[in-house]
Specification:
alpha/beta; 5-stranded mixed β-sheet; 15 helices; elongated
Length: 500
């Protein structure tokens, strides 16, 4: 029973309690019907034995709109019933039926019954209002969805138009080399610009379905901030804005996913830049006893007080949103990621035209966890990297080698098996999407082959980051799953944990 129904039932009980003394002394009963001939009295009536004839009386009253009096209920006429219409603005709202042999007190019970029915109608009105609000909310959600889909279509079609135009230029036989380079650069930029859009769409989908996740290790928040600011500064400079930072890079550590932490601050900074026409953005950070707090402030257009409670909601945009600023999912994703790091994010603004400040607070890593992280070394660990992209394997060989690992590389699943037959290996780091034989097949054959490879730790690296891809990799036999672009600290941490 919801709050409205409980209120209605409580009111009816109170009304009946007020005439309970009368019920005990007078042989009289009151039964109330609504316009659908549903009895709405609050308790079992003494007249329940007369329910069928009372319903007929009520039907007569509703049909004629007039009272129906002195209807005998038994053969000798000892009990008689009276039906009275209850009216509202739309006509007959219900019927009061009175069973009595004491006409002197009939009017009292009519008034009591009407009060009861009034309470019923108020409850009905409250339910209708609640349904109206729910309908309004559903319609608003549909409008937001349509607006969001329109924005997605615009963000996809605009760069696609550029790609199609420039490819038409490339087809011209008279195009010179300078124009060809310009066309290729434009096509590259248009395609590259879709990556953040697609990532945001995937992330908000994961967040809605509870599948957004982070890998948490001790991470320097100062270095994360510095990297995020360096990325955002390029966008700021293109709009003639400045970013001023005021914090020590040795700010401390949080237990978090460095890639996702960068995403939080890049999203917040990107929002500040897009909402600021003149002036700049400042980033300040401070340590607390158990937390680290970062403030990102801008001199932009500010936030309307009425919109402020909705600023982190997905698919919500303020009415003064400037054109061409993306889908507006960045802050919603930032909130989800902050909460996954057991932190908080809030927004404050004095009003429109007065700028805004976004505050992120994250728990500091405990000393014990910092020491545990420090022990995550891969010095001397024999790592086999399997990937058909030579740029990936060469870069990982240098980076993991710099961390102390002994690295071997293979460009195919068959090549990986040959190395494993010849050399002792502590762990395999394999791409999934490879020609001829993919990473799934490789790890399955390792698990099915008797010998050391059956229990050899294996990490999947892939550009696919859907929950189903992760589950498939783990089901195939991989122990961990790292997405591209590869977070080196996260990869090293996973290697250290698996070979420990």
């Amino acid at each position: 029973m919801d709050d409205h129904e409980e209120l209605w039932q409580r009111r009816i009980r109170e009304l009946y309690d007020n005439v309970e003394e009368l019920y005990s002394h007078v042989d009289i009963s009151v039964v109330v019907f609504d316009r659908q001939l549903v009895e709405v009295s609050a308790r079992d009536s003494p007249a329940s034995e007369f329910a069928p004839p009372l319903a007929e009386i009520a039907r007569h009253v509703l049909d004629t709109g007039q009272a129906h009096r002195d209807v005998p209920l038994d053969l000798i006429g000892r009990r008689r019933a009276h039906g009275y219409p209850i009216r509202d603005d739309s006509g007959s709202a219900g019927v009061v039926c009175i069973v009595d042999d004491d006409g002197a007190r009939r009017e009292l019970f009519v008034r009591c019954a009407m009060a009861i029915f009034d309470g019923y109608r108020q409850n009905e009105a409250a339910l209708l209002e609640r349904e109206r609000r729910a309908l309004d909310e559903a319609q608003r959600a549909n409008r937001l969805r349509d607006q969001f889909l329109a924005m997605v279509a615009h963000e996809l079609k605009s760069p696609m138009a550029s790609v199609l135009l420039w490819q038409a230029v490339l087809r011209e036989p008279s195009v010179d080399s300078a124009t060809r380079i310009q066309a290729l650069d434009a096509i590259h930029d248009a395609a590259a610009g879709q990556a953040p859009l697609i990532d945001d769409l995937l992330d908000i989908s994961r967040a809605i379905n509870g599948k957004l996740h982070v890998e948490r290790i001790a991470t320097s928040i100062g270095r994360v901030l510095t990297t995020a600011i360096a990325t955002a500064r390029r966008l700021a400079e293109s709009r003639h804005l400045t970013i001023v930072s005021d914090f020590d890079e040795d700010l401390g550590e949080v237990l978090g996913d460095s890639r996702r932490l960068r995403q939080i601050f890049e999203n917040v900074l990107s929002n500040a830049i897009k909402c600021t026409a003149n002036g700049g953005i400042s980033v300040r950070a401070r340590q607390g006893e158990d937390s680290i707090t970062i403030d990102v402030s801008d001199t932009g257009r500010g936030i309307d007080p009425e919109f402020l409670p909705h600023v982190f909601e997905a698919f919500r945009q303020s009415d003064d949103r400037p054109p061409g600023v993306g889908l507006g999912l960045g802050l919603a994703i930032a909130r989800e990621l902050v909460e996954l790091h057991e932190g908080t994010i809030s927004a404050a603004s004095e009003g429109e035209g007065l700028g805004a400040t976004f505050t992120v607070t994250l728990p500091r890593v405990r000393e014990a966890l910092r020491e545990d992280s420090a022990r995550q070394t891969i010095a001397g660990v024999r790592v086999l990297i399997v990937d058909d992209d030579p740029r990936i394997v060469d870069a990982l060989k240098i980076l993991l080698g710099g961390a102390g690992a002994v690295v071997e590389i293979a460009s195919s699943a068959a090549g990986a098996r040959r190395i494993l037959e010849q050399l002792r290996t502590d762990i395999v780091v394999s791409d999934i999407a490879m020609p001829v034989e993919d990473g799934y097949s490789l790890v399955r054959t390792l698990r099915e082959t008797p010998g050391p490879t059956a229990a050899l730790p294996a990490i999947a690296i892939t550009a696919n980051d859907m929950a189903a891809d992760r589950q498939r990799a783990l089901a195939a036999g991989f122990d961990r799953y790292v997405t591209k672009p590869i977070d080196l600290a996260l990869l090293i941490s996973n290697i250290a944990e698996l070979v420990r």
